[in-house]
Amino acid sequence: MPTSPDPPPPPPSALSPPLGSAKRGLGVRTWLLLDSTGRTQVVEAGKQAIMRRTGLPARDLRMLDPFLSYPSTVLGRERAIVINLEHIKAIITAQEALILNFKDPSVTPFVEQLQLRIQHFHQAIKPQLKETDGEQAFGNEDELKVLPFEFVTLEACLEAACSCLDNEATTLEQEAHPALDKLTSKISTLNLERVRQIKSRLVAITGRVQKVRNELEHLLDDDEDMAEMYLTDKMLQQNIENFLYLL
Protein backbone atom coordinates (compact mmCIF):
# COMPACT_ATOMS: atom_id res chain seq x y z
CA MET A 1 0.00 0.00 0.00
CA PRO A 2 1.52 3.37 -0.96
CA THR A 3 2.33 5.49 2.02
CA SER A 4 2.52 9.23 2.24
CA PRO A 5 6.02 10.65 2.61
CA ASP A 6 7.22 11.02 6.15
CA PRO A 7 7.05 14.58 7.49
CA PRO A 8 10.38 16.29 8.16
CA PRO A 9 12.02 14.93 11.32
CA PRO A 10 10.87 16.89 14.37
CA PRO A 11 13.41 18.60 16.57
CA PRO A 12 15.24 16.41 19.10
CA SER A 13 12.82 14.86 21.57
CA ALA A 14 12.65 14.90 25.31
CA LEU A 15 15.48 12.38 25.34
CA SER A 16 17.82 15.33 24.84
CA PRO A 17 19.49 16.84 27.91
CA PRO A 18 18.33 20.28 29.05
CA LEU A 19 19.66 23.06 26.85
CA GLY A 20 21.15 24.80 29.85
CA SER A 21 23.01 21.77 31.08
CA ALA A 22 26.69 22.40 31.69
CA LYS A 23 27.44 18.95 30.39
CA ARG A 24 25.32 19.28 27.28
CA GLY A 25 27.00 17.43 24.42
CA LEU A 26 29.01 15.17 26.69
CA GLY A 27 28.29 11.63 25.49
CA VAL A 28 25.23 12.79 23.55
CA ARG A 29 24.61 10.98 20.27
CA THR A 30 22.01 11.34 17.55
CA TRP A 31 19.72 8.35 16.99
CA LEU A 32 16.96 7.55 14.55
CA LEU A 33 13.95 6.18 16.43
CA LEU A 34 11.39 4.02 14.60
CA ASP A 35 8.25 3.22 16.55
CA SER A 36 5.96 0.21 16.09
CA THR A 37 3.96 2.00 13.36
CA GLY A 38 7.02 2.86 11.26
CA ARG A 39 7.12 6.53 12.14
CA THR A 40 10.59 8.00 12.50
CA GLN A 41 12.02 10.63 14.79
CA VAL A 42 15.54 11.96 15.20
CA VAL A 43 16.51 12.15 18.87
CA GLU A 44 19.59 13.29 20.72
CA ALA A 45 20.32 11.25 23.81
CA GLY A 46 23.12 10.76 26.26
CA LYS A 47 24.21 7.41 27.61
CA GLN A 48 22.13 7.68 30.78
CA ALA A 49 18.94 8.47 28.84
CA ILE A 50 19.43 5.44 26.58
CA MET A 51 20.17 3.24 29.58
CA ARG A 52 16.93 4.32 31.27
CA ARG A 53 14.92 3.88 28.09
CA THR A 54 16.23 0.42 27.22
CA GLY A 55 17.39 -1.02 30.54
CA LEU A 56 20.85 -1.68 29.07
CA PRO A 57 24.03 -1.36 31.13
CA ALA A 58 26.81 0.97 29.98
CA ARG A 59 29.03 -1.91 28.87
CA ASP A 60 26.42 -3.00 26.31
CA LEU A 61 26.21 0.50 24.84
CA ARG A 62 29.99 0.52 24.35
CA MET A 63 29.55 -2.25 21.78
CA LEU A 64 27.90 0.32 19.51
CA ASP A 65 30.57 2.99 19.92
CA PRO A 66 31.86 3.80 16.41
CA PHE A 67 35.26 4.73 17.85
CA LEU A 68 35.76 1.33 19.49
CA SER A 69 36.33 -2.03 17.83
CA TYR A 70 33.95 -4.75 18.99
CA PRO A 71 33.24 -8.13 17.36
CA SER A 72 29.94 -8.93 15.67
CA THR A 73 27.29 -9.09 18.36
CA VAL A 74 23.62 -9.97 18.74
CA LEU A 75 22.88 -9.61 22.42
CA GLY A 76 19.56 -10.24 24.16
CA ARG A 77 18.84 -8.46 27.44
CA GLU A 78 15.79 -8.12 29.68
CA ARG A 79 14.20 -5.23 27.76
CA ALA A 80 16.30 -4.83 24.63
CA ILE A 81 18.38 -6.47 21.91
CA VAL A 82 21.76 -4.99 20.94
CA ILE A 83 22.82 -5.38 17.30
CA ASN A 84 26.38 -4.77 16.12
CA LEU A 85 26.68 -6.47 12.73
CA GLU A 86 28.69 -4.94 9.92
CA HIS A 87 27.22 -1.48 9.26
CA ILE A 88 24.16 -2.10 11.47
CA LYS A 89 24.36 -0.62 14.98
CA ALA A 90 20.97 -0.70 16.66
CA ILE A 91 18.99 -1.24 19.84
CA ILE A 92 15.63 -3.01 19.59
CA THR A 93 12.93 -3.01 22.25
CA ALA A 94 9.43 -4.49 22.16
CA GLN A 95 8.04 -1.22 20.80
CA GLU A 96 10.78 0.71 19.02
CA ALA A 97 14.15 0.55 17.30
CA LEU A 98 17.04 2.97 17.77
CA ILE A 99 19.55 3.22 14.91
CA LEU A 100 22.83 4.90 15.80
CA ASN A 101 24.63 5.43 12.47
CA PHE A 102 21.56 6.19 10.34
CA LYS A 103 23.34 9.08 8.55
CA ASP A 104 25.83 6.66 7.00
CA PRO A 105 24.93 6.32 3.27
CA SER A 106 25.43 2.55 3.49
CA VAL A 107 22.75 2.39 6.21
CA THR A 108 20.10 4.40 4.33
CA PRO A 109 18.74 1.43 2.29
CA PHE A 110 18.47 -0.61 5.49
CA VAL A 111 16.52 2.15 7.25
CA GLU A 112 14.11 2.43 4.31
CA GLN A 113 13.59 -1.34 4.19
CA LEU A 114 13.14 -1.53 7.96
CA GLN A 115 10.55 1.23 7.90
CA LEU A 116 8.57 -0.62 5.20
CA ARG A 117 8.68 -3.85 7.19
CA ILE A 118 7.51 -2.14 10.35
CA GLN A 119 4.67 -0.45 8.47
CA HIS A 120 3.59 -3.83 7.07
CA PHE A 121 3.84 -5.29 10.57
CA HIS A 122 1.62 -2.52 11.91
CA GLN A 123 -0.99 -3.12 9.20
CA ALA A 124 -0.91 -6.88 9.87
CA ILE A 125 -1.30 -6.50 13.62
CA LYS A 126 -4.22 -4.06 13.45
CA PRO A 127 -6.94 -6.74 12.94
CA GLN A 128 -5.58 -8.74 15.88
CA LEU A 129 -5.69 -5.69 18.11
CA LYS A 130 -9.31 -5.03 17.13
CA GLU A 131 -10.33 -8.66 17.69
CA THR A 132 -8.61 -8.87 21.07
CA ASP A 133 -10.68 -7.91 24.10
CA GLY A 134 -9.63 -7.56 27.73
CA GLU A 135 -9.51 -11.21 28.79
CA GLN A 136 -8.04 -12.46 25.53
CA ALA A 137 -5.21 -9.95 25.86
CA PHE A 138 -3.68 -12.09 28.60
CA GLY A 139 -3.65 -15.30 26.58
CA ASN A 140 -4.19 -16.79 23.15
CA GLU A 141 -0.51 -16.72 22.21
CA ASP A 142 -1.26 -19.60 19.83
CA GLU A 143 -3.39 -17.22 17.78
CA LEU A 144 -0.47 -14.90 17.05
CA LYS A 145 -0.32 -14.68 13.27
CA VAL A 146 2.65 -12.35 12.80
CA LEU A 147 6.09 -12.06 14.31
CA PRO A 148 6.40 -9.63 17.23
CA PHE A 149 7.96 -6.25 16.55
CA GLU A 150 11.41 -7.15 17.89
CA PHE A 151 11.74 -10.19 15.61
CA VAL A 152 10.55 -8.27 12.55
CA THR A 153 13.25 -5.70 13.25
CA LEU A 154 15.90 -8.29 14.13
CA GLU A 155 15.20 -10.16 10.89
CA ALA A 156 15.69 -6.96 8.90
CA CYS A 157 19.00 -6.32 10.66
CA LEU A 158 20.30 -9.82 9.95
CA GLU A 159 19.25 -9.67 6.30
CA ALA A 160 20.89 -6.27 5.83
CA ALA A 161 24.19 -7.46 7.31
CA CYS A 162 24.20 -10.65 5.23
CA SER A 163 23.20 -8.77 2.06
CA CYS A 164 26.08 -6.36 2.59
CA LEU A 165 28.57 -9.22 2.76
CA ASP A 166 26.96 -11.00 -0.18
CA ASN A 167 27.13 -7.89 -2.36
CA GLU A 168 30.79 -7.33 -1.52
CA ALA A 169 31.60 -10.98 -2.26
CA THR A 170 29.79 -10.79 -5.62
CA THR A 171 31.69 -7.62 -6.57
CA LEU A 172 34.97 -9.23 -5.58
CA GLU A 173 34.20 -12.32 -7.64
CA GLN A 174 33.42 -10.19 -10.68
CA GLU A 175 36.79 -8.47 -10.33
CA ALA A 176 38.73 -11.66 -9.60
CA HIS A 177 37.95 -13.62 -12.78
CA PRO A 178 39.24 -10.97 -15.23
CA ALA A 179 42.30 -10.35 -13.05
CA LEU A 180 43.16 -14.05 -13.00
CA ASP A 181 42.60 -14.34 -16.74
CA LYS A 182 45.01 -11.45 -17.38
CA LEU A 183 47.59 -12.99 -15.07
CA THR A 184 47.26 -16.33 -16.84
CA SER A 185 47.77 -14.76 -20.24
CA LYS A 186 50.57 -12.43 -19.14
CA ILE A 187 52.61 -12.51 -15.96
CA SER A 188 53.53 -8.95 -15.07
CA THR A 189 54.10 -6.85 -11.97
CA LEU A 190 50.84 -4.99 -12.56
CA ASN A 191 48.76 -8.16 -12.97
CA LEU A 192 50.40 -9.79 -9.96
CA GLU A 193 49.65 -6.72 -7.84
CA ARG A 194 45.98 -6.75 -8.88
CA VAL A 195 45.63 -10.39 -7.90
CA ARG A 196 47.45 -9.75 -4.62
CA GLN A 197 45.03 -6.94 -3.74
CA ILE A 198 42.03 -9.10 -4.57
CA LYS A 199 43.42 -11.89 -2.40
CA SER A 200 43.84 -9.47 0.51
CA ARG A 201 40.24 -8.31 0.14
CA LEU A 202 39.10 -11.93 -0.06
CA VAL A 203 40.88 -12.78 3.20
CA ALA A 204 39.32 -9.74 4.89
CA ILE A 205 35.76 -10.44 3.76
CA THR A 206 36.13 -14.13 4.65
CA GLY A 207 37.06 -13.12 8.19
CA ARG A 208 34.05 -10.80 8.45
CA VAL A 209 31.72 -13.50 7.16
CA GLN A 210 33.11 -15.97 9.67
CA LYS A 211 32.57 -13.54 12.56
CA VAL A 212 28.92 -13.00 11.61
CA ARG A 213 28.42 -16.72 11.06
CA ASN A 214 29.95 -17.60 14.43
CA GLU A 215 27.72 -15.09 16.22
CA LEU A 216 24.56 -16.38 14.55
CA GLU A 217 25.46 -20.03 15.18
CA HIS A 218 26.19 -19.27 18.83
CA LEU A 219 22.84 -17.53 19.11
CA LEU A 220 20.86 -20.31 17.43
CA ASP A 221 22.55 -22.98 19.55
CA ASP A 222 21.54 -21.30 22.82
CA ASP A 223 17.84 -21.66 23.60
CA GLU A 224 18.12 -19.35 26.60
CA ASP A 225 19.58 -16.56 24.48
CA MET A 226 16.79 -17.02 21.92
CA ALA A 227 14.12 -16.91 24.63
CA GLU A 228 15.73 -13.80 26.10
CA MET A 229 14.99 -11.97 22.85
CA TYR A 230 11.23 -12.54 23.03
CA LEU A 231 10.75 -9.06 24.45
CA THR A 232 7.03 -8.80 23.69
CA ASP A 233 6.28 -11.89 25.75
CA LYS A 234 8.27 -10.54 28.70
CA MET A 235 6.53 -7.18 28.40
CA LEU A 236 3.10 -8.85 28.38
CA GLN A 237 4.01 -10.98 31.38
CA GLN A 238 5.13 -7.87 33.23
CA ASN A 239 1.87 -6.11 32.33
CA ILE A 240 -0.10 -9.07 33.67
CA GLU A 241 1.87 -9.04 36.93
CA ASN A 242 1.32 -5.30 37.30
CA PHE A 243 -2.40 -5.72 36.59
CA LEU A 244 -2.78 -8.53 39.14
CA TYR A 245 -0.81 -6.54 41.70
CA LEU A 246 -3.35 -3.72 41.44
CA LEU A 247 -6.34 -6.03 42.01
Automatic annotation (TrEMBL):
Gene3D superfamilies tied to this protein: 2.40.128.330, Magnesium transport protein CorA, transmembrane region (1.20.58.340)
Coiled coil start-end: none
Positions with biased composition (Pro residues): 1-15
A GO cellular component annotation in the UniProt record: membrane
Residues spanning the signal sequence: none
Its membrane topology: Multi-pass membrane protein
Assigned keywords, A-Z: Ion transport, Magnesium, Transport
Region (Disordered): 1-20
Keyword Manganese: no
InterPro entries hit by this protein: MRS2-like (IPR039204)
CDD domains in alphabetical order: Mrs2_Mfm1p-like (cd12823)
Location of the protein in the cell: Membrane
Annotated GO MF terms: magnesium ion transmembrane transporter activity
Family: Belongs to the CorA metal ion transporter (MIT) (TC 1.A.35.5) family.
Function: Magnesium transporter that may mediate the influx of magnesium.
This protein's name: Magnesium transporter
Organism: Liquidambar formosana
